[in-house]
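Session log. Operator J.P. requested a structure for one protein chain; no other inputs attached. Running the standard single-chain path with token output.
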Amino acid sequence: FSKEIGFKGYYEFKIHLAKDLGADNEQPVPESILRTDSSMDVFQKIMASEQEDLKYTTEMLNKDDFIKAVDMINQAEKIAFFGIGSSYVVAYDAFWHFSNIGKKAQVEQDQGAQMLLAQSLGKNDLAVAISLSGESKITNLNVKIAHSNGVPVISLTQNSKSEIALFSDCVLLTYSKNYQTHDLATASRIAQLAILDALCTGVAVKNWDYALEYHHNISKLIRSQQF
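Structure written below.
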């Protein structure tokens, strides 16, 4: 149960439960950071935290779900990425990566444009929803719109019991030490970026020659405008 809700084990769950029930531990930085820490102390703790998120995400990610996600993306005619706040940054990065290997992809920042995008998707397309909590109202609405139109959905979240997971055909989980906003926007986001990078690479491997030629042409086009 402790691992299912995002902790390494019962001991970590017990410690966090005690803090939530008693101590006033609100602070503007991750809980591992102390007021007396030096700048290098902060650097080392943040790097260790992000390495830990990647380590535990690697251990807990379901192999079959990842393979299924690669196949779903590979078969899709168009991929639409959805996310708000810090999750939009992840969604845009994914759009850029997949576009560079020749996959037709789209992402929108405006909430109204996101809903229009969700409504425009067909059964041969794919919706990829990114929400750390799994309870972002706009992202969930877009998932429901896509789902109601028969569009396959992949979600990246830390909460396997969330509403976004309920309407997804494939759920990819990332590890979370806690649900503090500042942590969600840094280490946890890096874990999601890494998963999407791996998905993109997995699709490129399946389409090696096409992805190579497309990426070469795109790189040549971009370089022509840089110098």
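Operator note: Strands lie at 79-82, 105-107, 126-130, 153-157, 170-173.
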